[in-house]
Specification:
Bound molecules: fe (ii) ion
Strand order of the largest sheet: 1-2
Helix content: 40-55%
Radius of gyration: 21 Å
Oligomer: single chain
Shape: globular
Number of helices: 11
Strand content: under 5%
Distance between the termini: 15 Å
Length: 369
């Protein structure tokens, strides 16, 4: 390609052009300008030795971590612990109390998960910059409304937590001994009702704080949503790690990824404590997962360790593993799952275009390239 002929010159001039663009346009221009202006965003080998593929994978992960941070921040403002480590918001007593029905330490766990996500994107962006690569910034898309409930900040958000369609099939996916999503298998949800509408996972305003079964249903929704988000990260990191090139980039993915698994493991344990109830305002049912027609190995709430299942080929014995870990299309799959979750309801087409491009570039990355 033409770029390879004069690589150092064209790389330098393009980089200085991009930097100038950033300086003029501000941080918000990165998301729109860098990826939407039709320029090839990377050289084959970026300065500092980061390959095009490694940079693309790190940028996609940074974008998802920014989105994760945004949603966790909203949970923390209303249901976590607001302090110097995770500032913002003043808490909602009724929502925090309902969350604590799942576990007395829910506020602490929400706080810690939020802080972890903040460090994930901050670290990845700093690492990209240390290699002369451009970081990701989605600030221009912070336009979605905040909750009007007392305790939340009134600021623009990247993600929507007030109209979620939560897929709880992760529950049975990790309990199956015979199926694996990498073989094309599908799994029934633990809470079928959460797939049949759009439900708030945080109180939308103070009217949502009662009656008791309504705010509890919102807290239950959050409890199952926490695990949905973190099981996604649990699969995404090992899926993308298979295509990175530099050992240090592999180390980053292998070191951050399992923290997502730590989160998931905690959250699916807590979700199992969500009380069975029917939301009197909208009919959303949280079933007793330990009784028929639920119950048994696929639903029993204390079966929180992964069951062994098929992996790579049916000729091998079953093994306890993360699932899925198929690398092909992993970034686009993660983006689709979050979109289907309803997290981006209200975002403009440009937002989806930017994320689609980041996912496409990450999925084009190849080990050694
Ligand atoms: Fe994360
Ligand atoms: Fe996470």
């Amino acid at each position: 390609m033409e770029h390879n002929v004069q690589q150092s010159k064209s790389t330098t001039s393009r980089r200085s052009f991009l930097r100038k663009g950033l300086a003029v346009g501000g941080a918000g221009a990165i998301g729109a300008g860098l990826f939407a202006n039709g320029l090839p965003a990377f050289a084959e080998v970026e300065s500092g030795g980061l390959t095009k593929g490694d940079a693309a994978i790190l940028r996609f992960l940074s974008a998802l971590e920014i989105l994760e941070t945004d949603l966790w921040q909203q949970y923390n403002e209303l249901g976590g612990i607001q302090d110097s480590e995770v500032p913002g918001g003043t808490g909602s007593a009724a929502y925090t109390k309902a969350l604590k029905v799942l576990d007395g330490d829910m506020d602490q766990y929400i706080h810690d998960n939020t802080e972890d996500e903040f460090t994930h994107f901050t670290f990845i962006n700093a690492y990209l910059m240390s290699k002369g690569a451009d970081p990701v910034n989605l600030d221009k898309f912070r336009t979605l409304p905040s909750s009007k409930a007392t305790g939340a900040q009134d600021i623009g958000r990247l993600t929507n937590l007030m109209q979620l369609t939560v897929d709880t099939s992760y529950w049975t996916k990790y309990r199956s001994r015979t199926k694996n999503p990498d073989f094309g298998d599908t799994f029934p949800p633990a809470v079928p009702g959460l797939l049949k509408g759009q439900f708030p996972a945080i109180p939308r305003d103070n009217n949502d704080l009662s009656p008791a079964d309504h705010i509890q249903a919102i807290a239950n929704t959050a409890g199952f949503h926490f695990a949905f988000i973190e099981q996604g990260g649990t699969s995404l990191y090992p899926s993308l790690a298979q295509r990175v090139t530099h050992p240090e980039v592999l180390r980053i993915l292998l070191s951050i990824g399992p923290t997502e698994t730590q989160h998931f493991q905690t959250w699916q344990d807590k979700a199992g404590n969500a009380p069975a109830l029917t939301d009197p305002t909208n009919g959303l049912v949280f079933p007793d997962l330990n009784s028929p027609p639920f119950g048994g190995e696929d639903f029993q709430t204390n079966l929180i360790m992964p069951e062994p299942t098929i992996f790579l080929s049916r000729k091998f014995p079953p093994v306890s593993i993360i699932r899925p870990t198929e690398t092909k299309g992993a970034a686009m799959g993660a983006l689709k799952a979050l979109t289907d979750d309803g997290l981006f309801i209200g975002q403009p087409q440009e937002f989806f275009d930017v994320l689609h491009k980041l996912a496409k570039q990450a999925d084009a990355a190849r080990h050694g390239g």
